[in-house]
Amino acid sequence: MSREAPTEKHYVHRRAGHVMISYDKRLFVWGGYMELAHTHPYTLTTHSKCMYHSAIDVWIYEPLLDVWKRKLSRGDIPQQLSGSCAAVHNDHMYLFGGTGCWTNNENDEVENSCNNLWRLHLPTLTWEMLHPEGTSPYSCDKAACWVYKNRFYVFGGFGPPREFEVMPKIKVQFVRDNIFHRGWIDQLVYYDIDTNQWVWPDTTGPKPTPRAAHSADVTGDKVYIFGGRYREVRMNDLHCLDLLTNAWSGNLTNEEDANVPEGRSWHTFNFISGNKAIMYGGFNTTQQVLKDVWILDVSNGSWQQSAQHNVGPVLWHAAAVAYPGELTVYGGIKNNLLDYSQPKDHAEEMVVLRFSPPSLQRLTIEAVCGLDLQLRSHWCQLPQTLQHILKTRTCPDRIL
User: Fold this and answer.
1) Quick check: 125 and 92 in contact, CB under 8 A?
2) N or C, fewer C-beta in 10 Å, the chain?
3) Backbone angles phi, psi at 33, to 5 degrees
4) Which residues, including other chains, have CB under 8 Å from residue 213's CB and lie 6 or more apart?
5) Helix (H) / strand (E) containing 231
6) Cα gap 183→211, rounded to integer Å
């Protein structure tokens, strides 16, 4: 396959800045972009040569079948975006912000961020663009989001400045970047699903600094936020927000403890159980792509580096939990995203990190598929459902 002209089926395997969520033990992937080879040198301020993935496509991965399915969505389909954030509430995926290509008055494509909010009905793959009341968040990309009860929260991001004419009492810190007409934001805002409005909650305690490309995930009544970039620093601070009291914890990272992750952005952070979260990969302050895996136990606040997984370096990937104790990592870029002298190396492999044994059924299916040539003649004795699973998993092209 040529990297300059991949076929449509291979688009699913080359993307960064996409979103991936878990629903009904399946993984849904949308958006992102694919970096193409550059024929001429370019710099940070040069328009990047990339291809945004089709916004109508929703790719669904079924772990049991080990198969990808391309589905066409309908309704108020978003524009092509990367750097959006997404979370699931009941049967819907909520998608906020991101950067995409628009056409300006000179008919040139320009990249700009948005603050639109969409809702995708997952059983029917029908999009709806929402128009909430209240003051909307900053336009931005690389924000973090989560769902708690009937609220869709957004924190942080990187985007252009704005003025709050409608609600001047909103307290937001915006720090301008030295190069772009954009900056880092410490916004905390949620969409109230029941009332269809944006709400800016008052909080107590030390609020995290503005940041982008950070990570967040919720467990119980608390959300944990780790790292991200602020100016030229990629941080390793860990913050907790009590969603019942709206109280910030302050930085929970003990800098005197040698056994803590280094600062990073463009990483993932996901709870695989009520107490344990997994952080993987990212990009550090010295522009190294990271491949380490860390386990955070929030019951005692301790970090432990995992040595059981042989994984490669990756940044701006996505991760989701389809089965308890199992994290699936997908997409991203394996080399320095800010090194403009070399083409970007997309991570085309899916990585599954297991921290608890899978079911006996899944173990048996994987073992039988591994002995395909020896056992295929006996498959006819199995129930039709199992035959279908085995045939699908051993098909050479598992993109449907």
Assistant:
1) no
2) N
3) -140, 165
4) 142, 158, 228, 229, 265, 266, 283, 316
5) none
6) 9
